[in-house]
Amino acid sequence: MTGPAPVTVLMNAGPWLSVPPPGYGGIENVVATLVPELRRLGVRVVLASVGSSTLDVDERLSVFADGQFSALQRPYNQVCGIAQAHLGGVVRALRERDDIDLVHDHVEAVGLATLTAMGPGAPPVLHTLHWDLGKHPDLYGQLDGGERVRVNGVSAAQLARAPAALRAHSVGHVHLATPLAVDADRRPAAEPGEHVLVLGRINPGKGQDVAARLARRAGFPLVLAGPVGPYHRPEELAAAGDQARQNPDVRFWYEQVAPHVDGVQVRWVGTVAGADRDDLVASARATLFPLRWEEPGGTAVVESLALGTPVVATARGCLPELITHGRTGLLTEDEDELADLLFAATLIDRDECRREAVLRFTPEAMARRYVELYERVRQQSGPVLEAA
């Protein structure tokens, strides 16, 4: 006898970056981490992304040949159709075929709205919320996905701040994972250096200006790694000229961060990927997260733990869920205390950080949790009509 047919999931990663991304790319990195483990667990994956994606999947669906991330610096009325065009391709595919058991959507706002609007005849949907849930009150506050559309968060803290209508559609949260956590406790620990690292997109919520001021005041070397708006390298931003300041992250960089960057004590190295990024994290005294916002997921946090580097952060968003104060990092609600904690972080056992990552943040753990949610969403959903 043959067993049941494998579940087929349309994984909607969106039109902004390839999967995996060439460097920075939060959601795309999550998808790139999740999909191989899902396939190992027997799930068929149809990836809806851009044509330049290289992730091994069962099928691909794309509207754009390459990522549209650079368009995000343009005014809204010039860029708003990109996500809709991508979703149009997804909707056409769902209408033309009858083998999609579930859509796992990662496209902010428009993905949820479009897939909800398809109505009861469409496949069930699990929409993962990767962002600040205060951003779209009109959408989230009135959401009615019936029995077919469900959402999940990437932390309990994120869902706790969700509007009531959105929470009513929730099936729980799934913490993010990193491939670096696989056998992290068996790898030799890197020898820590003196530098402190802030890893992530440079914007007010991430607080790179706070980190730079602390470094200059307290005298520790600081490395800032991540893009400024669509610009991944310092030379790219320098060549862009004054028009680049239309992007709010670029304005933040020039007005609040760049004045503190001297290339010696405070350095911006742009986007760092692969082994270079891992080496930069593993050799840091600590990773610093001087957050001004309620961080929903914290991919860079779990990567830091997997590489044995303790985390120092403001205790906002998901950070208290991911970090055990005094064991894998140090948390505070006082921004001015962060500098003292960075010096104290040398007392954290780096092997303990890696052991925690192995226990909690492996791709397999994330994938198994999503398989549970897929089954729950499918069971709760009403019957799916035949495709036209």
TrEMBL record:
Residues 191-341 form the Glycosyl transferase family domain. It comes from the Bacteria. Pfam families: Glyco_transf_4, Glycos_transf_1. Residues 24-134 form the Glycosyltransferase subfamily 4-like N-terminal domain. SUPFAM superfamilies: UDP-Glycosyltransferase/glycogen phosphorylase. The keyword Signal does not apply. One of its GO terms (molecular function) is glycosyltransferase activity. It comes from Micromonospora pisi. This is Glycosyltransferase involved in cell wall biosynthesis. Keywords: Glycosyltransferase, Transferase. InterPro entries: Glyco_trans_1, Glyco_trans_4-like_N.
